[in-house]
Every structure is written in structure tokens, then in C-alpha cells.
Amino acid sequence: MNKPLNPQNFAHIFFAGRTRVTLKNEAKDTHVRLKIKEKKERVNGKMVGTGRFFVYTSILNDGDTGWDFAATFFSDSKNYRLGQKHSQGSQVDRIMSFVSKALKTPSILSQKGAGVYHEGRCCRCAMPLTHPDSIVLGVGPDCLEHMGPNFFRTLLPVI
Ligand SMILES: [Zn+2]
């Protein structure tokens, strides 16, 4: 089940912690699925985020198989380091480059006719979402408290 997200929230969703999003080019009917997970480290007995996010892609929509490590993204710069398997200028590199640009300037998504969708799970903790308001946002009520003041709490289709 793919649910549309407010594209202005793309960076918030991407860097929430444990998320899966689909970017869809509506006109060309192409899409790419992304699985993003923050690397955590133990500091004084507590697991804390590192600001480094492992990004996996599934270009062929073949369910849960076919996840391929693509890149490490950095939440401060929104830049990425391409996985060793992939070469510069490859399809995965081009996708990651587009993702990086969209994280910095979300209006690029609508300019390119790209929609952002989630799969019915909270982007921060990956628990299934049940309440209609949570499904619109892609975040459960507890995790919503952690999304920060710039997280848009409505679906605004035009940016
Ligand atoms: Zn959650």
C-alpha cells in the first residue's frame, strides 16, 4: 500500500531513522524504492544516531528481495558517498544525485513530476500506521513529537 506524502517533508521523512519511501515519476510511470536506516552507536550505554544514513535501493519492484546498498547519506550536508559497488555516473549514482538535490530543494520533486510515497509504516520506528491522520503524515503519534518544528502536518500537494 503506497500512501502519498507531502513532498516538502521529504528530508524529514528521509532522515527520520527507519523509513521506506518510493519516488514515482507519474508521467513516465517509473519508480524507485528507497530503504533508509540511520547508523546508531552506543554512547554511555545508550544508542544514539550518528547522522549517517545507509540507503538501499530496489529499482525493480520485486518485493522484499533485491535491496541493494546504494550510498551513505549525511544528514548535515545532505550529500552522499556512493557505495563501492557502484560507479560514478551509474544509474544508482544518478538516482542518489537526484535524491540529494531533492533533500536540499524539495521543489525539484514537483518540477520533475515526482511523487513521494510511504508503505504504511512509521518513518521513524517502522511500526504499522493505523490512524488515518498518521497515514497521511507517515509518522505515528509518539514519533511525531520528534519530527521537529518544520515538519508539515498537512498534505500540501503544491510546492
Ligand atoms: Zn513511530
Unreliable sequence segments? none
What's the structural domain tally? 1
Strand arrangement, major sheet: 1-7-2-3-4-5-6
Please state the CA-atom Rg, rounded to the nearest Å.
15 Å
Structural category: alpha+beta
User: Helical stretch count?
Assistant: 5
Shape: globular
Our measurement of the CA-to-CA distance between the termini, rounded to an integer number of angstroms, reads 24 Å
Oligomer: single chain
Helix content: 10-25%
Sketch the topology as an H/E string, one letter per element: EHEEEEEHHEHH
Mean pLDDT: 90
β-sheet strand percentage? 25-35%
Major sheet: 7 strands, antiparallel
Bound molecules: zinc ion
Number of strands: 7
What can you see in these coordinates?
The structure is a single chain. A seven-stranded antiparallel β-sheet has the order 1-7-2-3-4-5-6. The chain has helices at residues 10-14, 91-104, 107-111, 132-137, 141-144; strands at residues 3-4, 18-25, 30-43, 46-58, 68-74, 80-82, 114-118. The protein is built from five helices and seven strands; from the N terminus they run βαβββββααβαα. It starts with a strand and ends in a 15-residue tail after the last helix. The longest helix is centred in the middle third of the chain and has 14 residues, at 91-104. The mean pLDDT is 90. The protein has one domain. It has 159 residues and is α+β, with helices and mostly antiparallel strands. Strand 3 (30-43) and strand 4 (46-58) form a beta hairpin. Helices cover 21% and strands 33% of the residues. It binds zinc ion.
